[in-house]
Design a protein that fits this description.
Shape: globular
Radius of gyration: 21 Å
Largest sheet: 9 strands, mixed
Structural class: alpha/beta
CATH architecture of the largest domain: 3-Layer(bba) Sandwich
Helix content: 10-25%
Strand content: 15-25%
Order of helices and strands: EEHEEHEEEEHEEHEHHEEEE
Length: 260
């Protein structure tokens, strides 16, 4: 058997970065080994610090964050209470595991400007360029290059984004899980807001997310490092989400598996 190359396609959950709108930025309180020693003295009455290795105890962290912090998988429930034209939308703990381990495909749209729509015609052209025909349960990863701005104020407005029609095109092929290396599967929110302000057309609001009302699907956001896969297809993606009861999303650590 050949060797496998594993590629981390996620970003870390980090405090103090402009990774989200201010109300969503994660907070991490770190319990140091010194603080852990104090806590262990409460759990083990009579123990002294001198009896602990190096006078130190355990380390741990307290996190304040949303289910959409860091790299995560959105469930259909995030987009609307219903999916598949009226059925109850699944929450993240209900997503079939079979959706989350499948053949991967990278569609490269790094040439597109920030805030531009990725259209059906462009998706078809890219599939033709890489000579690939989509099949049910393929995991489609959209590369915009926005991950290069991770950790900066520009991150929230970087990258092109999918629209309703291009999303439905993938879903109608039987695709159930997709991902993007940007903050949102849709175009960045400020671009959507500007277009709504100028046109007054509500169809522009969260159009790619709302496609899930018609056909239930999951998407990963805040992915990274798609460039390291080094091939547009011929690899496997694994992206199991953390089970949070009744939640709209779960943190995940997507990995590309390349057979060498």
């Amino acid at each position: 058997m050949g060797s496998k190359r594993l590629i981390d396609l996620g970003i870390s959950i980090e405090p103090g970065l402009p990774s989200d709108p201010p109300m969503m930025i994660p907070k991490v309180d770190y319990v140091t080994h010194e603080m852990g020693a104090e806590q262990m003295m409460e759990f083990f009455p009579g123990v002294t610090k001198d009896q602990l290795p190096g006078r130190l105890g355990w380390a741990m962290e307290f996190l304040t964050l949303t289910s959409h912090s860091g790299t995560h998988l959105d469930a259909p429930f995030h987009y609307h209470p219903t999916m598949d034209k009226g059925k109850r939308a699944w929450t993240i703990d209900e997503i079939p595991l079979e959706w989350c381990l499948n053949d991967g495909v990278v569609l490269d749209f790094r040439h597109k400007a920030d805030g531009e729509r990725i259209t059906v015609a462009e998706v078809k052209a890219e599939l033709e360029r890489i000579r690939y025909e989509l099949k049910p349960l393929d995991i489609v990863l959209v590369q915009t290059g926005a991950d290069q701005a991770w950790g900066t104020l520009q991150y929230l407005v970087k990258g092109a984004g999918m629209d309703r029609e291009s999303t439905l095109f993938l879903l109608e092929k039987g695709v159930k899980v997709v991902g993007i290396d940007a903050w949102s599967w849709d175009r960045p929110l400020p671009f959507l807001a500007k277009e709504f302000r100028e046109t007054g057309d509500p169809k522009v609001i969260w159009e790619a997310h709302f496609a899930g009302i018609e056909i239930g699907y999951c998407h990963m956001e805040k992915m990274a490092n798609l460039v390291a896969i080094g091939m547009p297809h011929g690899f496997t993606v694994c992206c199991f989400p953390i089970k949070i009861k009744g939640a709209s999303a779960g943190w995940c650590r997507p990995v590309a598996i390349v057979e060498e």
